[in-house]
Every structure is written in structure tokens, then in C-alpha cells.
Amino acid sequence: MKKKVLSIILSMAMVSAVLAGCGSASDETAPAVEQEEVADSETEEAAPEAEEETPAAEEEAEAPAAANDMLAGETGDIAAPGDGAGQKVVLITIDSMDQHWVNMDKGCKQAAEELGCEYKWIAPDVKDDAKQIECVNNAVADGATAILVSANGPDAISSALQEADEAGVKIVQVDSFANYPCVQQLGTDNRAAGKTAGEQVLAALKDKGIEEGKIGIVSVNAATTSTVDRDEGFRSAFEGTAFEILETQYADGDAAKSKDAAANFISQGCVALFGANEGSCVGVGNAVAEDGNNIVAAGMDKSDAVIQLIKDGALICTMAQNPDVMGYEGMYAAITAINGGSVAPDYIDTGVSILTKESVE
Asked: Which residues of the chain have pLDDT under 70?
């Protein structure tokens, strides 16, 4: 199975140890830099089925290349085109607000077309544990033979996943992980990505002659594993410096709420900001822009809005993940497992790229 090679490559590392057979990636890894439908019958992009549909804007991004090449580090079996006939795979994301999920859906769709399986994307309209649990239960009731899931929190969804597992549904975890065993995890080494963002901010501050001051972080919530790891990684970049990292402000990944949180940090005299996901990043960038681009700010994830904020100078960079690869490879892992094949390793780091003004213009 093939992973798109992105333009700016820093390093690649693989993580094979996971908690409880399928937990979070190791802290030691550096990042790689760089709906119900028969899958082959529809090419147009659509938002997931949700309590209330709120589709993200689409990004013109190339999907992963065709099947049958393995990602670096993969050692298991590979499903062949057509092996998914008669199977139904459902992608369940944290919400349907971010372009990140649209790109993950693109990867899933391409793999579903190659594998010949039925595929659907469903998601809560907002980040909510109860609504995501309902999505899992609905997928099982609807006859899913496998689910790809990005967990809103590490524990809330575990009981629902156990019930799905006991019903014979294969579980693949993508992007944000729950504390429950699964076929495979595919995602970003978020601590390493957060640390890289922090290093970029630190370098930019030093270039401006700033050696101390307050720094603010805007994130989603205190439970989502991926953003918590990014927060920790970002903070680690400032260890041993004179900078003070303030208490993280949570805004549910909502751009408007994140802008308010960022503006509050700016009013406290912060010299730098970090947005830990797409919505947080957009909110931070908008607040910095309104302040005249006087604050050094970086973010996580890529969207049209984030790219524009980088071009406009409100953000110095963003850490762009590869959600299309997570979805594409996750589909192949699911069908391989359904057919009794060996899926290995337990965790695959799908990499992250640093996007700066120079690289997006």
C-alpha cells in the first residue's frame, strides 16, 4: 500500500509498541516530515451522515496512489483489489467540521473503490462522546463488518468498541486513539509534531530577539489523545528556556471560540501562540491577524483557511498531517483482517510536514 510522498521531509520513524495492544504511539518517535454507497459508484465528495450535517470545505489534494505497495515498516499481509467484496466498512470521525476529516474520507473512498467494498462515513455534528458512541452503535446495527474510528477521548468510547468487537466487527483506529485493542492504529506521532511546532516558534522568537515571555496554547479539550499529546510536545520544546507556557485554553476545536481564547492570550501580553488542531489554528491565526501579525503563532493541520493565514503572515507555519493516508491504509488493514490476514505492525506513523510561507506560495 502506497503513501503519498510530501514535499518537505524531515524524518521518518515507526512506532511498534502500543498500550493494551493498541494504545498511543511511543513518546520517543520523531515525526516523518515531509455515504451508504457501493464504493466504486460515486466520485463526488460528500459530508458524513451525522446528527446535523456540517461538511468541511474540500481541499484540492491528491489521494494516495494505487494499492499494493507497503508503507515503510509494514510487515503483514496486503489485501488485493476486490478482496472487500461483500464487506461494509464505516469511518467514524470525531466530528464533521474539519477539512482534515474530508481528506481522510478521500483516502477511504479510493481504497474502497479498489477493494470493492461498501463504505460509509458517519460522524457527530459536534465533538461529543455520547454522539460518537451512538455512531458506533449505529454502524454495528447497520451491518458494518469493520469500522475505522478516531476517538474523541481515550476511554469514553471503549465500551462501545468492546460491544462492536464482540459482535465480530473489526476495529482500526485512525488519528486519535481509544484505550481498546484493535487491528491497527494509523496516525501521527503527535508529541513529536507538537515539539517540532514548538521548535519553529522558539526559532522565530529568537530571530525577533525575544528570549522570554508568555506563550499560550489553544486546544480542543483535555481528553482527546492526539491534541493532548501535541500540547505536551509543544511545551517540551521550551524546557530550559525563560519562556512561560500558560495554562491551555480549550475551545472545542471551534474557530470562533478559539479566536476568542487566542485574543484573551494576546491581551495578557503573550509573545507566541499555538493552535493544536485545525479549528484552533484558524482561530489563533485570525486573532493574530486582527492584532496586526505582532504575535508569533503556529498551528496543527492543513486547510484552505490555514494556508491563507500562513500566506498572510498570521501564522509562521503549520504541521500538516496525512489523513488521506490514514484512511486509505486503514481500509486495507480492515479488509485484510476481515479475510484472516496478518496486519502488522500494531502502529504506523503516517507522518507530518512543516508548511511555511515559502512552501505554500
From this structure: 1-75
Rounded distance between C-alpha atoms, residue 248 and residue 215, angstroms: 10
What's the domain range around 311?
A: 190-320
- For residue 149, being part of any structural domain is answered with yes
Q: Tell whether 28 and 149 lie within a shared domain.
A: yes
Joined grid coordinates for residue 290: 486582527
CB 306 within 8 A of CB 282: yes
Amino acid identity, position 121:
W
Same domain, 118 and 135: yes
- Give CA separation, 179 vs 27, 126, 142, 212, 307, in Å: 16, 21, 24, 38, 33
Q: Which three cell numbers stand for residue 102?
A: 474530508
Number of structural domains (the chain) is: 2
CATH, residue 332: 3.40.50.2300
Place of cell 496478518: 342
Query: Per-residue pLDDT tens for 91-142?
Result: 999 999 899 999 999 999 999 999 999 999 999 999 999 999 999 999 999 9
On whether both 167 and 232 belong to a single domain, the answer is: no
Is-above-0.85 flag for pTM? no
User: Diameter of the chain by CA atoms?
Assistant: 62
pLDDT at 76: 76
176 and 235, same domain (yes or no): no
* Residue-wise DSSP of 253-320: T-HHHHHHHHHHHHHTT-SEEEE-SHHHHHHHHHHHHHTTS-SEEEEES--HHHHHHHHTTS-SEEEE
Amino acid identity of residue 273, one-letter, is L
Q: In Å, how far are 47, 93, 344 from 44, measured between CA atoms?
A: 10, 19, 32
* Predicted local confidence at residue 75, as pLDDT: 63
For residue 97, what pLDDT is reported? 87
- Cell numbers at 186, concatenated: 494509523
Looking at the DSSP bridge assignments, the partners of residue 113 are: none
